[in-house]
Amino acid sequence: MVQERESVQALPKKSENFSEWYTQVALRAELADYTPVRGSMAIRPYGFAIWEGIQAWLDRRFKETGHVTAYFPLLIPESFLKREAEHVQGFAPQVAWVTHGGQEELSERLAVRPTSEAIILPMYAKWIQSYRDLPVLLLQWNSVVRWEKATRLFLRTAEFLWHEGHTAHRTMEDADAECRLILGIYRELIEDVLAIPVLVGVKPPSERFAGADNTYTLEALMPDGQAIQAGTSHFLGQNFAKAFDVKFLDQDNQEKYIWSTSWAVTTRLIGSLIMAHGDDKGLVLPPRIAPFQVVIVPILGRDDAKVLPAAKALAARLSSRFRVKLDDRDAYTAGWKFNEWEMRGAPVRLEIGPRDVANHQVVLSRRTGRSKETLSLDGLEDTVGRILDEIQAELFERGKSYRDEHITQAGTLDELVAAIDRVKGFVKVGWCEMQSCEDTIRERTGASPRLIPLDEEASGKCVVCGMPAKVRVYYARAY
After folding, report:
1. Are residues 180 and 72 located together in one domain of the fold?
2. What is the DSSP string of 260-327?
3. What is the CATH number of the domain that holds 26?
């Protein structure tokens, strides 16, 4: 018998120590680990399999909408980064610099990319000459470095993985339509695949991407009552085009600046998955993103000669429709495996022993409720498919109910302060759009303005100054 590994020992309770629970799930489910480099993590194969699932889904959708993949340099000359003043000011505190090549001091510092606008736009200046060259719809899959002071696995690390889209358009309307298109794709990924409900809107000016005219955002609410930014799509206007002199000859024979966008989701989504769905037994993965949707555990003993071939045949049969893992390791007991796959969040576990082989059946356990049911092997594919769909829907509806129960409204600043402390979720308020009023809310609540919703009209008065509200804003404490 192998000594019990840490991965199947009891976790801290999610309701009592959310932060430590989160860290232990990320480590024990073997999603990631700490490295000797401050603030950086190693993504382990099981965690990277989740990221690969996100990549594959997005890559398919991007190709369907005409986007193509490219790659741009990791290092950006300091003079390029400085060309867009607001952009460099926004990222300056987080930039890591390369100052030497070997023993030679560089004549100009090179920034390790915090984002790639400053290296991509100069290339667009070379490639775009005419309206016939537009639109340009590029993205790249890569890592970026932002020198964070406080880090947590997946949620905030010095280096993280993402894709970044960078597009160039002939008109303002085309660029804004691109931002909204990407916003819709992200929402489909996060809600339909990851089963995390989101609110959709735009950021107030203080929260926009540095150098953008507008930032569209998707905001999710985690079980500890804090919000998390799940994805963004930035309307850059002509700011970067003017900084890097990206012009084209239009149909009217006039030279004009392009309109550009950028957008991204990151490995932060894996952290959101852990928090949104996990429980005191560990990770809970939505079937559509789980590396293994079905785990088969043979109950081995005296009848191995019958059970193991039956388990292998079942795995082969189900693999044509689902992502299947046959756990036939003989160094661990069946009970140990049950605990491990609960920790790792497999949506469905199938158990098959001598009696099951004799009766042409399996025992199915759902990760969401850990209930067990005995099922006939006849038509098992359809039964498993139905159950996986039920689990996917259950996780989304559970998250949606929690989010909706934790959205409140405040009419005064005192009500807002009380709601942030009491409800620990989103609080809707009216805002006059004066920065001084936003600053007052931040100081009193410790919360930030997460979004101005796209589908809600302003009404009433500003929660701070009492002037007529121009917009509605959702406030929350956030990661």
Report:
1. yes
2. EEEEEEETHHHHHHHHHH-BTTB----TTT-S-SEEEEE--STTHHHHHHHHHHHHHHHHTTS-EEE-
3. 3.30.930.10
